[in-house]
Here is the input.
Amino acid sequence: MLEPELEALLLRIVPNLARDWSGASPEDLEELEERVELTGHDFPPFYRWFLSRLAGSVGALHPMLRGFTAASVLEAYRTGSVDIGPTQFLIGRMPDALMPLDVYYDLAHPLRDDAIVLSAILDAGPESQISETFREWIAARAMIKFGVMTAPHRCFGAFVDPGRTAAAQLETVMTALGFTSPITTGPFCRLYERGDMTMVAKSTVKPENLGILIYEIGGPSVAAIRRLLGEIGRGTTLQVDADRWATRSR
Here is the structure.
């Protein structure tokens, strides 16, 4: 059971979440369960947890989860605006004037009490596998918003390994450097915290992407981030690319 990991992370980093979050109504939960049953696949245990905690009100997570409420998903189904495969299930919509996205499960591929998450431009496609689990998708976005983006300095780049062991190599060196991972993740997502530093490193779910992780790091100074990148380069065979730097506006 991995839900407590994410719950602890969100309650720690998201302001006032314990006060603001709420789950779906029993009626909405029952209807969603019935709609999942129509796919012929099991209801992911993590999605049940999500619906019980965040499918009513999401508090400060509203910018990233406003289209993931039970009401939003059910409205899409009730109005007949969901057009996805028979084993897929809509879990949210990300409104955008230029590129609105549907986000949905591939229930034919359960994983870690959850399932593969896909997204596609609404009514346009093509779809892409954006995360091995919905749990990782939420955690990564929350850590970027409330960890990386709130840090005084940030760096964006990539770790590259032609041998396709990017995640394993990164895990070894980050553990040695005293970083911890707040939730269990797979090889396409690595999340790390240490004091006043946060790293999110991930890629879309494709075999060829096992050799690359796109990272975002937030830290107290450019020098601290450079030291970390240097340690990663020396402690692994990863190619470390730092593509862009940013400073938080005061």
Remarks:
- Residues 3-134 form a domain with the SMI1/KNR4-like fold (CATH 3.40.1580.10).
